[in-house]
């Protein structure tokens, strides 16, 4: 809505238009900055499992090694869940930007500026 409002006010009140555009840019940047670390969660889990596996080689009893292997095998390499149906991935930022762009376009088509 910030971008749409910015487009609507561009002729009648340019100061408000610029203010809404700046807030819109900040909102997009906040999304990218906030969720940037979430992309690395599956990689970090893999790294942790690899480190535990390497450390478990020092164990002397074979049954302890098997127990560690079973434990590591049971830990899933999943990322951050978005709802119950989607995992946060690198494409999520692009999907977010596409969502914003599509909604702005549909608002402009539905309610064109006067």
TrEMBL record:
Taxonomy, superkingdom: Eukaryota
Name of the protein described by the UniProt record: Uncharacterized protein
Species whose genome carries this gene: Allacma fusca
């Amino acid at each position: 809505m910030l971008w749409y409002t910015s487009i609507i006010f561009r002729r009648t009140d340019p100061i408000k238009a610029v203010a809404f555009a700046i807030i819109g840019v900040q909102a997009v940047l906040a999304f990218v900055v906030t969720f940037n670390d979430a992309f690395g969660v599956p990689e970090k889990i893999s790294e942790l499992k690899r480190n535990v596996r390497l450390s478990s080689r020092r164990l002397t009893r074979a049954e302890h090694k098997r127990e560690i292997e079973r434990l590591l095998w049971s830990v899933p390499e999943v990322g951050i869940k978005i709802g119950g149906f989607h995992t946060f991935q690198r494409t999520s930022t692009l999907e977010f930007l596409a969502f914003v762009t599509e909604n702005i376009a549909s608002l402009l088509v539905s309610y064109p500026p006067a």
